[in-house]
Specification:
Order of helices and strands: EHEHEHEHEHEHHEHEEEEEEEHH
Structural class: alpha/beta
Number of helices: 10
Largest sheet: 8 strands, mixed
Number of strands: 14
Helix content: 25-40%
Distance between the termini: 31 Å
Radius of gyration: 20 Å
């Protein structure tokens, strides 16, 4: 479906924290209009609708999926429900932006991608890091050979917690653990620059519930490049990243997935700092992925070149491989 109207009409599926953050950015975009929201309960949907001035509130997902006045649905459920929620919308002919981790596993991701391609619908993982202007600048510098051939990538993302066993991050039924919620960022960062790894080693500390409290992985490529990635829900890390090449290095001092600056070090030259443009908004803004979705819809594209579906599938395969090595499997999961 090609969107030609001046304003792209959005539906929001789920009413949690990330849904609220995304919707707050959407309502500030002049070419976006949030027309409907759905939750498992009408009360939750109505409260969300009142908060953001949304005209329609549904107490079930199917009603939102059937709403033909919606151009694209933003799926913001916990990732254990992504396959069901996004699949319902795609089956009904809706375009979809789906939060990350994209699904529980690569098998579910393949099903969604196949469904979108069969229907000719737009589908994108909400990997907002890939749409960030400063991350795009970093990627372009690396591709242009600013630091030579990439040798190593390091990235970490950890929260201090503590999270009780009842929290979704500790709940196996909701796909809990550090890896799918936080580790998807460092893995996606490494694969943005190097593609899918050829070999993977990993270790983790598991909770009594059987989810990973912290995980470290070493990814390797046939080129000889290595990536060290770490995630944790029991220790707050610096969320730093570094990319080292044969002729230099790029450091992101903090918040690598939504940076406000990075520093390019090149052999024989003074360090160069690249800062975010204040016009791009706060570093936590989700507007860039929303704008990319709307650009693609208006262009009649069924996927984004910034967040290609084949790249999403490759990240899901890596997350599967890491989970296999650390022994984390979810209830009723079919792989």
């Amino acid at each position: 479906m090609t969107v030609t109207e001046n304003r792209v009409r959005w539906g929001v599926l789920a009413t949690g924290g990330i849904a609220a953050a995304f919707t707050a950015d959407l309502v500030d975009l002049p070419d976006a209009q949030v027309v409907a929201v759905a939750s498992r309960t009408r009360a939750s949907a109505e409260a969300f609708a009142e908060r953001f001035g949304i005209p329609r509130a549904y107490g079930d997902w199917e009603a939102l999926a059937r709403d033909e006045d919606i151009d694209v649905v933003y799926v913001a459920t916990p990732h254990a429900a992504h396959r069901a929620a996004a699949g319902l919308c795609l089956e009904a002919g809706r375009n979809v932006l789906c939060e990350k981790a994209f699904t529980l596993n690569a098998g579910e991701a393949r099903e969604l991608v196949a469904l979108a391609r069969e229907r000719g619908s737009f589908l994108m993982e909400a990997m907002w890091m890939y749409c960030n202007p400063l991350v795009r600048r970093l990627k372009a510098l690396v591709e242009d050979g600013a630091i030579g051939e990439v040798r190593t990538v390091q990235a970490d993302f950890g929260l201090s917690g503590p999270f009780p066993p009842s929290h979704r991050l500790r709940d196996p039924a909701q796909g809990g653990g550090a890896l799918l919620d936080l580790g998807v960022y460092p893995v996606s960062f490494a694969q943005l620059l190097l593609g899918e790894p050829s070999d993977i080693a990993a270790r983790a500390v598991l909770s009594d519930e059987g989810v990973d409290l912290q995980t470290g992985a070493l990814l390797s490529w046939e080129s000889g490049a290595l990536a060290s990635v770490h995630c944790s829900v029991v220790g707050g890390t610096g969320t730093t990243a570094s990319v080292t090449g044969s002729a230099g290095r790029i450091d992101i001092p903090d918040g690598f997935f939504h940076p406000d600056r990075f520093v390019l070090h090149r052999d024989g030259r003074a360090p160069e700092e690249f800062a975010a443009d204040p016009a791009d908004g706060p570093r936590t803004s989700l507007r860039h992925e929303a704008k990319e979705v709307m650009r693609a819809l208006r262009a009649g594209e069924t996927e984004s070149p910034l967040v290609p579906l084949d790249g999403t599938l490759a990240v899901m395969r890596t997350l599967d491989a890491i989970r296999d090595r650390i022994g984390v499997h979810y209830p009723g999961e079919a792989r």
